[in-house]
């Protein structure tokens, strides 16, 4: 493999020497420039695999170089070296397209991790640098994000670009639109793909356990802490931590999370020292986070740290051209899981789906098609089999009550009713199977169901 070339831009001889020694020990070749103009001249003369630039230069600053590289050599990763505590400047560099940043005094371990990650982006940008207009590889073929409509083509292109950065990304979009799939794609296409992807639903962690879950704890830190516990940050070391429903974080935890992101270090509960962590933060919520900031429910400073780059996931009603392709793939999965023959939509059934607004997005489409598959007597799903929700909300056949509403009197009643109905249905199916000696076809006939409908209910109710 040819030697990788790194451009170092700094006017301090000591820093240049330190970086040259570090790079040489990593088997990399370093070329130094002492100002902005010299760096631009070197970039025009030869290709590089990575650029490390100080933020303060005699004839400009690192942000000017980031802008120049983004415009002329977009395939070249550039990382900036900032003064200690200059997080705002680093965030600005990330917004402009910098791959990552490292603070002075330079932590050599963190620097080596940054360099390794940048060089894992793919083959050298030699050649590609001379063609900045070249389109990124088509990620749609292998992506679980289905659809080739214009909004989805734009989404795929943006994901591919963001995968080449380490900037925090805030993924906004309606419930069921695929925000976690987007986060997984950013991780899969980036240099951290071989490292862990750790998703966490921030609203599902009890408040009293939140700090321990995120940062870990030491044995004896509190009653019940019988051994050391590794938190989510350490579990995601070298990889990506995806904070889903981040708007549900309580304010005290928001303060601790902000510090962890800014300092790139965590302190386990019961520990006296901080532990450096190398994770990329992706976050998402279906709530209006700006509104939460205005109303005082979400810290503005944390919002700015998480929302360095915002990526909006289009709702299904804005990409109706994708419904046919999505439905085909979903029905294929259903037929494979239920071990039935191939399923397909009739033209009138597809028309019904394409007229629907899908407030529950792709998740709602999946639920509708699962119900339609149970109602259909054959492989062809007709318009009459499409049972659209009348409330405007996506619902599963037995919809669980949201955890946040279960503690209300109405929520407890609804949840109890769901449980009671599910128990009655489970008992009826168990009785029919017992009477038919476990023959599912005969049990379905006894219950007045098609075999496919019985299979669906067995799966939903978890009956083996």
What can you see in these coordinates?
By secondary structure, this protein is α/β, with parallel strands linked by helices. The chain has 18 helices and 16 strands. The longest helix has 27 residues, at about 410-435. Residues about 125-140 and about 390-405 have low confidence and may be disordered.
Strand content: 5-15%
The number of helical segments is 18
Radius of gyration, CA atoms, in whole angstroms: 27 Å
Q: What about the largest sheet?
A: 5 strands, parallel
**First-to-last CA distance:** 54 Å
Structural class: alpha/beta
- Largest sheet, spatial ordering of strands: 2-1-3-6-7
User: What average pLDDT do the residues reach?
Assistant: 86
Binned, the helix content reads 40-55%
Overall body shape: elongated
Unreliable stretches, pLDDT < 50, 5 or more residues?
123-140, 391-407
Number of strands: 16
Topology:
Layout (H helix, E strand, L loop, with lengths): L4 E5 L3 H13 L3 E5 L2 H10 L4 E5 L1 E2 L2 E2 H11 L5 E5 L4 H10 L3 E4 L4 H12 L30 H13 L6 E4 L6 H10 L8 E5 L8 H6 L16 H4 L4 E5 L6 H13 L1 E2 L8 E2 L3 E6 L3 H6 L5 H7 L2 E4 L10 H16 L5 E2 L1 H9 L5 H15 L4 E2 L27 H27 L4 H8 L3 H11 L3
Parallel strand pairs: 1-2, 1-3, 3-6, 6-7, 8-13, 8-14, 9-10, 10-13, 15-16
Antiparallel strand pairs: 4-5, 11-12
Helix pairs in contact: 13-15, 15-18, 16-17, 17-18
């Amino acid at each position: 493999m040819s030697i990788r070339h790194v451009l170092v831009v700094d006017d301090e001889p000591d820093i240049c020497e330190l970086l040259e020694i570090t790079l040489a020990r990593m088997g990399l070749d370093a070329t130094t420039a002492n100002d902005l103009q010299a760096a631009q001249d070197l970039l025009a003369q030869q290709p590089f695999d990575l650029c490390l630039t100080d933020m303060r230069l005699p004839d400009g600053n690192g942000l000017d170089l980031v802008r120049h590289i983004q415009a002329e050599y977009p395939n070249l990763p550039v990382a900036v070296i900032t003064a200690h505590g200059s997080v705002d400047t680093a965030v600005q560099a990330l917004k402009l397209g910098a791959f990552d940043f490292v603070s002075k005094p330079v932590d050599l371990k963190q620097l080596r991790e940054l360099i390794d990650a940048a060089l894992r982006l793919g083959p050298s940008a030699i050649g590609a640098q001379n063609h900045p207009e070249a389109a990124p590889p088509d990620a749609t073929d292998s992506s679980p994000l289905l659809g080739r409509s214009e909004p989805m083509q734009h989404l795929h292109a943006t994901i591919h670009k963001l995968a080449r950065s380490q900037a925090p990304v805030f993924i906004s979009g309606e419930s069921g639109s695929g925000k976690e799939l987007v986060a997984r794609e950013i991780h899969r296409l980036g240099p951290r793909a071989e490292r862990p992807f750790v998703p966490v639903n921030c609203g599902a962690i009890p408040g009293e356990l939140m700090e321990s879950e995120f940062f870990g704890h030491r044995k004896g830190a509190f009653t019940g802490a019988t051994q050391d516990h590794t938190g989510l940050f350490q579990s995601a070391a070298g990889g990506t931590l995806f904070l889903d429903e981040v708007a549900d974080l309580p304010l005290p935890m928001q303060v601790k999370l902000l510090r962890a992101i800014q300092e790139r270090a965590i302190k386990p509960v019961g520990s006296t020292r901080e532990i450096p962590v190398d994770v990329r933060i992706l976050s998402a919520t279906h709530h209006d986070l700006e509104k939460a900031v205005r109303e005082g429910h979400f810290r503005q400073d944390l919002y700015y740290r998480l929302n360095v780059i915002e990526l909006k996931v289009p709702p299904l009603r804005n990409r109706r051209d994708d419904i046919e392709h999505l439905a085909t793939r979903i029905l294929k999965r259903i037929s494979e899981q239920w071990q039935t023959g191939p399923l397909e939509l009739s033209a009138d059934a597809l028309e019904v789906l394409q007229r629907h607004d899908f407030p529950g997005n792709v998740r709602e489409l999946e639920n509708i098609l699962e119900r339609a598959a149970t109602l259909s007597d054959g492989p062809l799903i007709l318009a009459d089999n499409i049972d659209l929700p009348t409330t405007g909300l996506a619902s599963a056949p037995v919809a669980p009550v949201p955890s946040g509403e279960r503690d209300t009197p109405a929520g407890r009643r609804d949840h109890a009713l769901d449980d009671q109905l599910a128990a009655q249905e489970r008992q009826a199916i168990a009785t029919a199977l017992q009477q038919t000696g476990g023959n599912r076809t005969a049990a379905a006939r006894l219950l007045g169901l098609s075999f496919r409908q019985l299979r669906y209910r067995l799966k939903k109710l978890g009956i083996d």
